[in-house]
Amino acid sequence: MLEERMTALKREILGYAGLVEDMIEKAVTGLLQKRHEMLTEVIEQYEPRANALEIEMDDMCTALIAQYEPKARDLRTILMVLKMSNDFERMGDHAVNIAESGLYLMERPPVKPYIDVPRMAEVTIKMLRDSITAFVNEDAVLAKNVCERDSIVDDLRIQLLRELITYMASDPGTIERALHLIRVSGNLERIADLATNACEDVIFMVEGRVIKHHHFEEPDGPSTSN
Question: What are the chain's domains?
Answer without folding.
Answer: 2-207 (1.20.58.220)
